[in-house]
Amino acid sequence: YYHTSCNLHGNVVFLLCMCASESSNNLCHFIANLLHRCGWSLPIFSITKEIMQDESEQQHTPSLTTVRSDTSEEGIRSLRPLPDDSFSIINEVIISGVGSMPIIKGDLRQLPIKVQRFVIEKASLMRPRGIYICDGSVREADEIVAKLVERRTLSVLTAYENNYICRTDPQDVTESIAWIATPGKFQTVCRTNDGVVPIMCNWISPAECGKELDSRFPGCMTGRVMYVIPFSLGVICGPFSKIGIELTDSNYTVLCMRIMTRVSPKVFEALGDGDFVRCIHSVGLPRPARRRVTRNWPCNTDLAFLVHRPAEREIWSFGSGFGSNSLLGRKSMALRVASAIARNEGWLAEHMAVFSVTDPRRREHFMTAAFPAACGKTSLAMLRPTLAGWKVRCIGDDIAWLRFGDDGRLYAINPEAGFFGIAPGLSKRTNPVAMAMLRKNCIFTNVAETANGEFFWQGLENEIKDKTVGMLNWEGRKWHIGDDGRAAHHNARYAAPASQCQLMHYKWDSPKGVPIDAILFGARRPRGVPLVYETFSWSHGVFTAACLKSEVCFEGGTKKEIFHDPMAMRNYLSYNFGEYLQHWLGLEKSGRKLPKIFHVNWFRQGDDGELLWPGHGENIRVLEWIMRRIEGDQQCGRETAIGVVPFEGHLQLDGLDQVRFDDLMSVPPEYWREDADEVRCFLEEQLGQDMPIGIREQMERQEKRIGTL
Questions:
Q1: Is residue 634 classed exposed, middle or buried when 0-12, 13-18 and 19+ CB atoms within 10 A define those classes?
Q2: What does the alpha-carbon distance between residue 409 and residue 143 come to, in Å, rounded to a whole number?
Q3: Which PANTHER family does the entry link to (predicted)?
Q4: Mean pLDDT, 10 residues at a time, the chain of 709 residues
Q5: Is the pTM of this model over 0.85?
Q6: Domain ranges of the chain
Q7: What does the DSSP 8-state code read for residue 706?
């Protein structure tokens, strides 16, 4: 039986072939290839005799809720490899038992064998209508942008050059819970007492992980294009760089990954036969869609699932297209998977900004800063100093990979190629450098759009020229300043190329990295914690960072709580917290020149609730004192129970008449006694049997010092 039917729709031909013999199947492919050479866009679905015998699987779209009972890796469909003789590549992929899928762009045959297998295996699983191999070019981006503008997924911000705004489904606005799948539970979480909920990692067993994957991914790209994104974290071919391949059915993700990572065919050349991190992402809405698509933003948040398999160097994300749920090269690879790789290879992958500080005598020192969200990490990396002759240059604002060089110093690279920041609160007052960076080649998500074609969010009220201008808020509703509701979602984002930042250091993409002299940990602490202090040693610094906690706002800012965020890695670690702290402690070895560790707090308040420190550009005064400590000035600080703080007169305060030094630097005995008790409770609960000896020793020493206050 041989039948073909052609439905002409635009310039697309759909060719349906039902073949009872191999010869007629080959004839269909001959016709398809002939039409393809004539310029037709041709998705081909070929059903062989073998496939026709398996009617139950081929004639029905796989259910997104079916769970398989076989939970061995061989029985987990999502993780099952294909036999070598089960597929072939022409100008399409022909998979035994599945059929054929056209290669819409690129040549799959030219890719490394491991990449070919990865692409084909997941195409067999997710069943896209075609495969598109990305090259990261401007032309490619322009074509995708044009499609998204036509579909009204993107809107042009006409006041700028090449800026676009996107509004997501209102249900798809936050990062998903990140699960870590390891064979042993205590590879991921600590051995704690019953009833204690670990805060650092969310563990899932491989069997449960397999069930979750198989209930979602089979057939999830039906009717959609699967984009293959080759990307490098770090410069391509760099000695510290890592390569990832992301498969996604979201072209919005393609655009943002092109900004945030280095997407290029050269990645395949650099990879060769090497290993790479496998990233699989789907919006989870096969066509025809079985649920309403809001704002032209496909998603399936009811089934959202994000899981990491560190040992396999694999990341799966389903149901969400927002932020790091889809940009798997960011937090998922650059921190979660990378932190596990770093532990095994003897380096660090940290949630840190990297920047340099240069004094009037042109002495330059490089520093990193690990702060929880909303604590000014980006602003510090892009600081405009208020002191004459000083300058700050940015390496990166979010992620640092740190390794020891042959000279014993710790070197850092920024693995990213862009900035993916929170927009609300950003302004010319808080970060003029970032604001200048956002005037071209950016993508904004869930911000407001003015009638003049400008972006808008909370914090820009005093900087907008026409305060009566009409807007569309992040929900697409008409809005004016003063109206109820928010202009932008509180988690609204921007994606901007790093090369556009005026203060980028000329070594920002150096393959070797830059040598780090100081590591800063900091958070929002309204009471009791000094503006700045230096820890007594490397191990004391690790202990201090393990106790890091910050004030977090809830319910529109009306409710505030202090939350623990050790090392600012609470959401980004992928292995046992105790082993992580021991890894940090173990970096102290003979012959190594370890950076000094400091704690900073820009957010201490007086009894009246007002901030004691002006912050922003004035933070250069704190960095000036830190540089003096780096260079060995022992006369500028005094020891307290928690570390070394500046002597009065040794922190440059000229022109800051309202600053009360004693209030900024005091170490209140009662506050710190209560804090010591709370810290002990936290560490013993969260680390349990896995508390490193070095951490317990530092905790007991600090308790003893505080007891003498």
A1: exposed
A2: 45
A3: PHOSPHOENOLPYRUVATE CARBOXYKINASE (PTHR11561), PHOSPHOENOLPYRUVATE CARBOXYKINASE (GTP) (PTHR11561:SF16)
A4: 36 44 49 53 38 31 41 75 72 82 94 97 96 97 97 97 98 95 97 93 98 98 98 98 99 98 98 97 95 95 98 98 97 98 98 98 98 93 97 98 98 98 95 97 98 97 95 97 96 97 97 98 97 99 98 72 96 97 98 98 95 97 98 95 97 94 96 98 97 98 96
A5: yes
A6: 6-125, 138-338, 349-414+509-707, 419-500
A7: H
Amino acid code (one letter) for 634: Q
Please tell me the predicted confidence (pLDDT) of residue 559: 77
Check if the beta carbon of residue 265 is closer than 8 Å to that of residue 135: yes
d(CA 247, CA 127): 12
Which of 375, 394, 442, 501 is labelled catalytic?
375
**Dihedral sign of CA atoms 478, 480, 483, 488 in order:** positive
In 3-state terms, what secondary structure has residue 341? Answer: helix
The answer to whether the beta carbons of residues 378 and 418 sit under 8 Å apart is: no
Residue with tokens 């005094």: 638
In the annotation, is 375 catalytic?
Answer: yes
> 349-414+509-707 has which fold?
Phosphoenolpyruvate Carboxykinase; domain 3 (3.90.228)
CB-based burial of residue 92 (10 Å sphere; 0-12 exposed, 13-18 middle, 19+ buried)? buried
Percentage above 90 pLDDT, the chain: 83
Q: Within 10 Å of residue 498's Cβ, how many Cβ atoms?
A: 20
41-58: buried (b, 16+ CB within 10 Å) or exposed (e) per residue?
ebbbbbbbeebeeeeeee
pLDDT in tens, 390-434: 999 999 999 999 999 999 999 999 999 999 999 999 999 999 999
DSSP 531-599: SEEE-SSHHHHHHHHHT-EEEEEEGGGTEEEEEE-GGG-TTT--S-HHHHHHHHHTT--TT-BPPEEEE
The greatest distance separating any two alpha carbons of the chain, rounded to the nearest whole angstrom, comes to 93
**Which of these CATH numbers, 3.40.190.10, 3.40.449.10, 3.40.710.10, 3.40.630.90, describes 138-338?**
3.40.449.10
User: Which residues make Cβ contacts (< 8 Å) with residue 599, sequence separation at least 6?
Assistant: 520, 521, 522, 529, 532, 533, 535, 544, 643
Residue 214, classified by CB atoms within 10 Å of its CB into exposed (0-12), middle (13-18) or buried (19+), is: buried
